[in-house]
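Need residues for this backbone.
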């Protein structure tokens, strides 16, 4: 039986501004198992970005419980959350967030620097990660010498270099042309085939269609995930928040 990588039980997130409160997540329960490729979709304001931030330990729930690879992060402080982010989660964002002054391999090695990996090992692993995304001949190039699609490949290599439990991608093709987007999605397919757990946050159902399972978020609630179906045909069946 596959290990459960993500478990959310009754997760709520409330944002406050003065006397005004907004409930972004309204009692979300969800499990994702090791090796799954899941797409989370929903319109702007649906709560999917809030869900992503909680899954990536970039934010904490107001109520409920969240476990990643068996670790309960619900009560962790910022130091503990940072450690979990460094060990468990690899991030790929719409913005590449690369340092313009550093070569590709230097950008990729940065998470290993924070983990205090030895320099020779950092370089070896960074180059291997770049080779795995088809950039073995670009390891010395700076971001300004790379196309948008190549820069996103660098960010994927950086996300994978720590060998995380979970690869979390937020609109990873949003800044790319259609050809580059197909190449990037092909890399996610490859990462999934290697056994990695992938969660893709997107508003684009064509992008979401690459995943094996679809989860739709609307008004802070989560829609039943469906496996092996055409995402355009997924009915909206909303789970009511727990009372």
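Answer:
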């Amino acid at each position: 039986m596959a290990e459960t990588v993500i478990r959310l039980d009754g997760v709520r997130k409330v944002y406050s501004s003065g006397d005004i409160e907004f409930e972004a997540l309204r009692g979300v329960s969800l499990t994702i198992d090791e090796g799954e490729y899941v797409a989370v979709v929903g319109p702007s304001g649906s709560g999917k970005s809030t869900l992503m931030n909680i899954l990536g330990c970039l934010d904490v729930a107001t109520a409920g419980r969240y476990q990643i690879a068996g670790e309960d992060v619900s009560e962790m402080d910022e130091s503990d959350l940072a450690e979990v982010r460094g060990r468990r989660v690899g991030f790929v964002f719409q913005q590449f967030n690369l340092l313009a002054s550093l070569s590709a391999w230097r950008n990729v090695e940065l998470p290993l620097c924070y983990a205090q990996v030895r320099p020779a090992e950092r370089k070896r692993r960074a180059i291997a990660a770049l080779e795995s995304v088809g950039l073995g001949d670009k390891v010395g190039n700076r971001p300004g010498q790379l196309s948008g699609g190549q820069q996103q490949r660098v960010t994927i290599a950086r996300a994978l270099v720590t060998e995380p439990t979970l690869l979390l991608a937020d609109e990873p093709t949003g800044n790319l042309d259609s050809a580059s987007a197909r190449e990037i999605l092909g890399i996610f397919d490859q990462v999934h085939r290697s056994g990695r757990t992938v969660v893709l946050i997107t508003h684009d159902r064509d992008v979401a269609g690459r995943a094996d399972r679809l989860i739709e978020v609307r008004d802070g609630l989560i829609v039943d995930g469906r496996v092996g179906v055409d995402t355009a045909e997924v009915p909206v069946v909303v789970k009511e928040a727990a009372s």
